[in-house]
Amino acid sequence: MASAVFPGSFDPITLGHIDIINRALPLFDHLIIAIGINVDKKYMFNTETRIEMIKAVYHNEPKIQVVKYSGLTVDFCHQHQLNFILRGLRNPADFEFEKAIAQTNRKLGEVETVFLLTGPETSFISSSIVRDIWRNGGDISKLVPAEIMPIIKRKG
Ligand code: ADP
Questions:
Q1: CB-count burial class (<10 Å; 0-12, 13-18, 19+) for 110
Q2: Which CATH number do you get for residue 65?
Q3: Which domain, by its residues, includes 136?
Q4: What is the pLDDT of residues 105-145, one digit of tens each?
Q5: What residues line ligand 1, using a CB cutoff of 6 Å?
């Protein structure tokens, strides 16, 4: 059984994440979307809200589970018997950063990372751009899944 974790901040989940998740679904029997808790990072939406947003999109998808985790991603993979880490690549900066992490994870935990290249329609989207637009009163509805808009408005 091929199972993977898609780790990230998802602060908030965007159409870029959705594109990667939807294209990864046929590749895996089980996909865990895991929100990493990093105590040094300042998030806009708290962990429970970010989980709620992802669940609002994927509540009808039996292959997907949404959880939070702390610690090393490879340890999370071993605890849950996951074979693969899924990541998206948008640009050369992503590649350089992800390359070192993927090679380290293979060395440390013998876990393979699978990369999907960003789609042309969503390659420019990042959670940080979405947060910036939202903070400044702009319209983010073209950048995030429609299901999360009511949650964002409630929290915002
Ligand atoms: P992190 O803090 O781990 O980078 P993010 O939520 O920003 O968390 O990203 C999680 C994953 O989603 C990363 O692999 C990132 O490259 C990918 N991703 C984010 N936005 C896009 C996008 N527009 N297209 C493809 N992949 C993306």
A1: exposed
A2: 3.40.50.620
A3: 3-155
A4: 999 998 999 999 999 999 999 999 999 999 999 999 999 99
A5: 8-10, 14, 16-17, 20, 87-88, 90, 94, 118, 122-123, 125-127
